[in-house]
Amino acid sequence: MNRHGAWLVVIDPQNIFASPDSEWGSPFFDEAMTNIRLLADAFGERVLVTRWMPTADRSTSWGEYFAAWPFADQPASDPLFDLVPEAASLSPHPTLDLPTFGKWGAGLEAIVGRGGHVVLTGVSTDCCVLSTALAGADAGARLTIATDACAGSTAENHAAALHVMGLYPPQITLADTAAVLASAGIAP
Length: 188
What we know:
Keywords: Hydrolase. The protein has 188 residues and is an alpha/beta fold.
């Protein structure tokens, strides 16, 4: 088990980001989920799953965003926003549902602790993972991005997002799943 008290945060493992039929579907989602499952098994009860929800105020720039992506302008109850079946059992905690790209904020910090260590995984590397990581770094968290447990919109965008996050040491570090497990004292 996780001896260092770190939390695993799985960003938005939802149908809208997993389905090849979705305009936002990542072609790398299944590969990332394989590694997310390995990490979740090792982190046990210290796993939190988030969901992006389409509930933002349309009178803000989110209105323009949804005009640009009308397929996503659906009620929050639409199956697009459900967790993929493989993610439903990742965490014993309720999902953290937010209408923002970044999931870092008072709700997440209340669970994982101020200044704690968080391993980030999920989709998409170049949007919600990146937004969460940068806000977490600003808040003083210690973040590890499990690079092979994240899925980008494209291979190029995934690499670009990892490059940007890699510019933020020591607050943000990059490691693959095997290295995360080894640093937590867990055999891969």
